[in-house]
Amino acid sequence: MSLSLSARLRRRVAMRLWPPAFEPPAPAPPPAWATYVGDGLATAHNSDFLADERFQRAYAAGKATGSWWDYEIHWRAYVVCWAARRGLSLSGDYVECGVFRGGYSRMLADYADLGARPDKKLYLIDTYCGVPKHHISPGHEPMLETLYPDSHADVVATFADLPNAVVVRGEIPDVLPEVRPESVCYLSIDLNCVEPSISAVEHFWPLMSTGAALVLDDYGFTVFRDQKVAFDAWAARHGVDILTLPTGQGLLIKPPAGTGSDLSHS
After folding, report:
1. Coil, strand or helix: which one is 66?
2. What is the assigned CATH class of domain 53-253?
3. What is the largest CA-CA distance in the chain?
4. Element (H, E) at 141
5. How distant is the alpha carbon of residue 19 from its chain centre?
6. Does an H or E element contain 252, and which?
7. How far is CA 5 from CA 14, 17, 21, 144, in A?
8. Where are the chain's structural domains?
9. Of all helices (H) and strands (E), which one includes residue 19?
10. How far apart are CA 43 and CA 24, in angstroms?
């Protein structure tokens, strides 16, 4: 014990005398072949969206909400922006299930310029105080129970300048009867748990316009494997296939009526 204590004491003294030796090493520079490295993804392929000023402004607005902590998630964010812009040419409203501080929503609203489209609402559905304990999968408790502090006031303030934003506070599926747009042109599900996610997609899928994008934020992450299993089973029942993206997301485009199950509507 005395030797162990002495070693710890020597380490503490050394850290004070020469702190650079104990600082974490600087991150390695990206390899020369890479056009993008980050968020679990590295590629040598075209990444020119990173230089697009419209995307840069929208991404900065989303990041400023604090939704992504210190992470950089450019490619994931671009998938959201791509899907949001696609929705402009379709009938219906935008729906996000799982909002936290509103990073994705603020970004897509700016990228798609929803302020100039009062005909399209943006529904923001969340408890705004984290994942309900009774929905957390076994083993995920340490990760999720304290991850999301109350963010309702922050989100209300973030979208105060967007009259067509509708902040819906409550637990899915309980609040779903309150959200019944005539049609949906974009749907994002980022709820970090299985049962509310499936309830959300069951509720909104029949309302989605043909060609509308469904973005599943957690679909490809190994830590949320239970969600992928559940969404795959749901997709099989509806005769559709979800595309796994290297960003960790899942992507599904609503097919024309009659090409999937009889629950598909345009």
Report:
1. coil
2. alpha beta
3. 76
4. helix 141-144
5. 38
6. strand 250-253
7. 14, 19, 21, 35
8. 53-253
9. none
10. 26
| Amino acid in the structure at residue 113 | D
Residue 145 is encoded by which pair of tokens?
Answer: 């129970």
Cβ atoms of 231 and 250 within 8 Å: the answer is: yes
d(CA 256, CA 208): 10
- The CA–CA distances, whole Å, from 28 to 20, 24, 32, 45, 46 equal 17, 12, 12, 20, 22
**Amino acid type, 123:** Y
Per the structure block, which two tokens stand in for 106? 């603020």
Instruction: Dig out the tokens for 113 from the structure.
Output: 């310029």
CB count in 10 Å sphere of residue 263: 12
* Tokens (6 digits) for 207: 């309302």
pLDDT by residue for the chain (266 residues), tens only, comes to 444 455 555 555 555 555 555 566 677 787 888 999 999 999 999 999 999 999 999 999 999 999 999 999 999 999 999 999 999 999 999 999 999 999 999 999 999 999 999 999 999 999 999 888 877 777 777 667 677 889 999 999 999 999 999 999 999 999 999 998 999 999 999 999 999 999 999 999 999 999 999 999 999 999 999 999 999 999 999 999 999 999 999 999 999 987 765 444 33
The residue type found at 181 is P
Long-range Cβ contacts of 35-40 (<8 Å, 24+ apart):
36/74, 36/75, 38/72, 38/73, 38/74, 38/75, 39/71, 39/72, 39/73, 39/74, 39/75, 39/76, 39/247, 39/248, 40/246, 40/247, 40/248
Strand, helix or coil at 60? Answer: helix
